[in-house]
Design a protein that fits this description.
Blueprint (H helix, E strand, L loop, with lengths): L9 E7 L5 H9 L17 E7 L3 E7 L10 H12 L4 E7 L5 H13 L3 E6 L12 E2 L8 H15 L2 H4 L14 E5 L13 H12 L3 E5 L4 H6 L7 E4 L4 H7 L6 E3 H9 L2 H8 L10 E5 L11 H14 L4 E5 L13 E4 L7 H14 L2 E4 H8 L3 H4 L4 H8 L1
Parallel strand pairs: 1-3, 1-4, 4-5, 5-6, 7-8, 7-9, 9-10, 11-12, 11-13, 13-14
Antiparallel strand pairs: 2-3
């Protein structure tokens, strides 16, 4: 993390009029006195840069700029310096005195819109001004006690506006094999499979292997054992559909790493460690608890749908609890999660990483555990530890 180059970090500029409290806000975010603060206008002259690891966003670079309405002798140079920063900023925080949006703020907003830079409004100095606007985050940047609450709100909003290309850098499985090694992919073709096609995670996995100069053998579940016997050198990885995971584990030699497409998607799109932690909550459910099944697409549910039929039946059978299941499809992720004990998210092949991370953070903020289809099914079938074998660091998390 410390060696991540600036060019690979999410760069966030703090912009606003003089004495709006940009430097104080940066100090609050970092939790250190990085930027010099003073009631005197024009205290910040040159851009102050500070790298930080900001989960779940990852490596970021904060850019504290000079006041946009600086009227000192160096105002023109400082304004030009701020405008240069906007050329490299991925996101901007527009720091305001209270919720005042006047000429300095309007000029900044025009610059941000022209450059198509997403921005958030931070209504600072909430101890001095009455803030009526609701389209920003209100804060008193000198109130250290409010830091954690503010950071939760800030990260949630940053996830909404963060550019997609910052997140979509995680390989699906190409980093789990060396070039020229072989992955075996077990793909059932049941009546839910799209006619003439494979589902998106399977296609993505195949493409990722090809991009990494790796070999793929694709088989149906009833041909897997015979295919495995034909290898002179064991394959480097086995990947299967979650619905046949117990059968695959039983037929796979213990020395061969194996996993599921859904678990790969949990790592690729979100935070697999959180999903593994969330699986433990399955065994803590009690009669009457509510579970939210979150589907990212709006497919037509079949009589044996994995999210609406199979998973609820499996959880009810394994836990022996009388549970209530609710369902959210597409972008209709429930805003109020307080009523739920567990959220089970699908693989998320139709949403981007930003959306997935936002859902995980919303659950974390509400104190609700979250897992995904593949992790949930593997845990309920007693094979989760086995299918985490490609990810040694997660074994400890699972055991804990």
């Amino acid at each position: 993390m410390l060696n991540t180059p600036k060019a690979l970090r999410l760069q966030i500029a703090l912009v606003g009029r003089t004495n709006a409290g940009k430097s104080s806000l940066l100090n609050l975010i970092i939790g250190q006195s990085i930027a010099i603060t003073s009631p005197l206008a024009g205290t910040t002259t040159d851009v102050v840069e500070k790298a930080q690891e900001l989960p779940p966003l990852g490596p970021v670079l904060w850019l504290d700029t000079a006041g946009y309405n600086d009227d000192t002798l160096l105002s023109t140079e400082r304004r030009h310096a701020t405008e240069k920063i906007l050329a490299r900023a991925d996101i901007a925080l527009l720091v305001c005195q209270g919720d005042k949006i006047e000429q300095p703020e309007e000029e900044i907003i025009a610059q941000l819109n022209e450059r198509k830079i997403p921005y958030l409004k931070i209504y600072n100095q909430a101890d001095k001004y009455t803030i009526k606007s609701t389209d920003g985050i209100a804060i008193n940047a000198t109130d250290v006690a409010a830091r954690e609450t503010f950071l939760q709100a800030l990260k949630a909003q940053l996830l909404k506006v963060c550019p997609d290309d910052f997140f979509n850098q995680q390989p699906l499985l190409g980093d789990l094999l060396s070039p020229e090694q072989t992955a075996v992919m077990i793909i059932p073709l049941d009546y839910e499979a799209p006619k003439g096609r494979l589902i998106l995670p399977q296609v993505m996995a195949i493409r990722d292997c090809l991009d990494n100069q790796q070999n793929i053998m694709v088989v149906k579940e009833n041909n897997y054992v015979a295919a495995l016997q034909n290898f002179k050198t064991p394959p480097a990885l086995i990947v299967c559909d979650s619905q046949v995971v117990d059968k695959m584990v039983a037929q796979t030699p213990p020395e061969i790493p194996c996993t599921t497409f859904s678990i790969l998607m949990a790592r690729y799109k979100g935070d697999l460690a959180k999903m593994v932690e969330g699986a433990a909550s399955i065994w803590q459910l009690q009669d009457g608890d509510k579970v939210l099944i979150a589907e990212s697409c709006t497919h037509h549910a079949t009589d044996d749908d994995i999210g609406r039929v199979k998973i609820p039946h499996l959880i009810t059978h394994k836990t022996g609890k009388n549970l209530q299941f609710d369902y959210a499809s597409g972008c209709d992720f429930t805003a109020d999660l307080s009523a739920y004990k567990l959220v089970i998210q699908c693989g998320g092949c139709t949403i981007n990483r930003r959306q997935m991370l936002f859902r995980i953070q919303q659950c974390e903020k509400a104190g609700v555990a979250i897992t995904n289809y593949g992790v949930c099914i593997s845990e309920l079938k007693g094979v989760l530890k086995r299918v985490l074998s490609p990810f040694p660091s997660l074994t400890k998390i699972y055991q804990q």
